[in-house]
Amino acid sequence: MQETTTDLIRNSSFVPAAAGISLTRVGILGTVTLLSTSIAAYIVAVLSVYEWRSYKKDKAKSSKRRKQGKNEKYGKLMRISAMSAALFGMLTFLSQVFQILLHMNTEIRFCNALKKIDFTLTNFIFISVYAVLWLRQRSFYVNTHTRHLTSCCTRSFSVALLVVLFGISLINPIVFDATQWFRRTRYGCKLESSAFPAQYHWLTLAIITIFFHASLLALFAYPLLKHRAVITQRAQQQQVTNRKADELVIIIRRAFHLAIVCVVSDIIVVVVNVTVVTTIDVIPQIVTNINLLTNMICVVMTFAEWKKRLFPFLKSKTEKYPDDHSSMAMVGTSSSRERSSSDTHRKSGSNLLQEI
After folding, report:
1. Using an 8 Å Cβ cutoff, are 214 and 262 in contact?
2. SS3 at position 192
3. For 21-60, how does the pLDDT look when each residue is reduced to its tens digit (9 = 90+)?
4. Would residue 10 count as lying in a domain?
5. Range of the domain at 174
C-alpha cells in the first residue's frame, strides 16, 4: 500500500527538520509579538497618564466653567477613540502571544476561535482609528464659527460616512467569521477553507482603507483650504504677511502625510499577505504587527500635542498649548468667550491655529 504524504512526513527524517522550523517560527514570532505588545502597552500607559492629567486640570477648572462646549466633547471622544485603538492593539498582540503558548501544547486546539478573535480585535483597531479621523473633521461642521466654511454636500457626506463606518464595523467581522475556517498545523493556524478566495478579503481591506482615509482627509482639508483662501484675500487687501495661511498649509500637509503613511502601510500588508505564500507565516505576521503599530502611532500624531502625549516625561520649551483638550480637530474652543462681530473669521482662525 502506497504511503500518503502525511505518513512520509511522520515516518521520515523530515520530522526533525520540520520540528526545527516550527521552533524557529515560534521563537521569531514570540519575540516580535512580545515587542509589539510592549509598545502597545506603552502607548496605553502614556495616554492614560495624559488623560489623568487632563482630568485633574478639568476638575480644577470646573468651578469656573459653566458648560462643556461641543469642541471639548469632540476632543474627549477623540481621545477615547485613540485610547481604544491602542487598547485593542495591545489585546490583539496578547491574543497572539496566547496562540503561541497554545501552539507549544499539542493537546489544545482553539485555532479557529483565536483567529476570529484576532480579526475582530483588529477590526476594532481600524474602527477606532477612523473614529478619531471622523471626529476630527466633524468638529468643523458643528462649530458655530467654522460651520460657514462647510457646505450642505460635505455635511451630508460626513454623516453618511459615519453610517457606512458603523455598517462596515458590524458586517466585516460577521462575514469573516461566517465564511472562513482555520485549522492548526505544526506551523501555526492555517486557512483550511473559505467561501471566498483569500485575496477577496485583502482586496476589500485595501479598498476600505483608501476610501476612508481619502474621504476623511478631504472632509478635513476642505474647510481649512476655504478658510485659508479667506485670510489670504484679507492679507492681500491689507498688504500684510500671511503667516496664518502658511500655518494652515502645514496643518493640511501633516494630515496628508499621516494619511499617506497609513494607506501605504495597509497596502503593504495586503501585498505581502497575497504574494508571500510560505509554509511559515513569519513575514506576513511581522508586517501585519508593524502595520497595526503604525496606525496606532499615526492616530496619536493627529493631535497637535502628540509629543506631549507619547512622551509625557519630556518637557518642551517651545510648544505651548491652550489646554489639554486641544487637538487637531478642535476649532474655536473659546467660542463661548467670543462675540459675534466683524472679526469672527479672524478669531476663529486664530483659535484653530492654536489648537490644531
Report:
1. no
2. strand
3. 566 767 778 888 899 999 999 999 999 998 888 878 777 6
4. no
5. 15-53+68-312+325-332+341-355
Instruction: Return the C-alpha cell found at 201.
Output: 478579503
Residue 15: is its pLDDT beyond 90?
no
* Number of structural domains the chain divides into: 1
What is the crossing angle of helices 243-275 and 198-238, to 10°?
170
Location of C-alpha cell 467569521: 177
For 216, residues 6+ apart whose C-beta sits below 8 A from its C-beta are 130, 133, 134, 136, 137, 161, 259
Instruction: Tell me which residue of 37, 30, 32, 31 sits closest to 94, measured CA to CA.
Output: 37
- Average pLDDT (115-124) is 87
CATH assignment of the domain containing 111: 1.20.1070
β-partners of residue 190 are 183
Q: What is the spatial distance between Cα 99 and Cα 348, in angstroms, rounded to a whole number?
A: 51
Tell me the C-alpha distance between 281 and 269, whole Å.
13
Q: Does the pTM of the predicted model rise above 0.85?
A: no
d(CA 141, CA 163): 16
Which contacts of 29-33 are long-range, i.e. CB under 8 A and separated by 24 or more positions? 29/96, 29/100, 29/188, 29/282, 29/285, 29/286, 30/97, 30/100, 32/285, 32/286, 32/289, 33/93, 33/96, 33/97, 33/100, 33/285, 33/289
* Long-range pairs for 48-54: beta carbons < 8 A, 24 or more residues apart: 48/83, 49/312, 50/79, 50/308, 50/309, 50/312, 50/324, 51/79, 51/83, 53/312, 53/324, 54/79, 54/324, 54/325
* Joined grid coordinates for residue 174: 460577521
72 belongs to a structural domain: yes
| Helix (H/G/I), strand (E/B), else coil: 355 | helix
Q: 317 in a domain, yes or no? A: no
Q: Considering the domain boundaries, does residue 222 fall inside one? A: yes
Query: How far apart (Å, rounded) are the C-alpha atoms in residues 131 and 166?
Result: 10
d(C-alpha 199, C-alpha 203), whole Å: 6
Q: What is the pLDDT of residues 226-246, one digit of tens each?
A: 888 877 777 676 665 567 667
